[in-house]
Amino acid sequence: MSEPRIKAGIWVSAALRIGSADNKPGMVVRKGDPDAGGVLVILRGRSGNMVLTQFREPGGELAWMRGTGPSPVNEEATDAYVKKQVSYDPDLWVLEFDAADYLPPFEGRLV
After folding, report:
1. 9 phi, psi to nearest 5 deg
2. Around Cβ 80, how many Cβ atoms within 10 Å?
3. 88 vs 35: CA distance, rounded Å
4. Is 18 helix (H, G, I), strand (E, B) or coil?
5. Where are any strands of DSSP class E within 1-111?
């Protein structure tokens, strides 16, 4: 059975609060659809950035994929990936967190 889906705007607010509490401050880089927008998360670390892409597993559970690959990438690669994803989905939210360990401050399965 799939987990209940909450509105994107509410999820974003909660993720930012969790990030602040976890000493991983975050901000909204791009606002998406407040009800049903997807989410990209940029994790900024010392060696570059990673971008996590939100998706639903076959059972409906929320999960995250390292969209820019397993290693940190530079700013240009980050911007190019985000721009491409936004071109596919104009309702997309983009969040950014300072995360030296490249782990998101919120819970979620990484694949």
Report:
1. -60, -40
2. 13
3. 18
4. helix
5. 26-30, 39-45, 48-56, 62-66, 93-98, 109-110
Give the bridge partners for 12, in sequence order. none
* Element counts in the chain: helices (H) and strands (E): 2, 6
Q: Are strands 26-30 and 62-66 parallel, antiparallel or unpaired?
A: unpaired
Question: CA-CA distance, 39 to 93, in Å (whole number)?
Answer: 5
Tokens found for residue 35: 């009800």
pLDDT, one tens digit per residue, over 34-69 is 998 999 999 999 999 999 999 988 988 889 999 999
Measured from the Cβ of residue 85, the count of other Cβ atoms closer than 10 Å reads 16
What pLDDT, on the 0 to 100 scale, is given for residue 62?
85
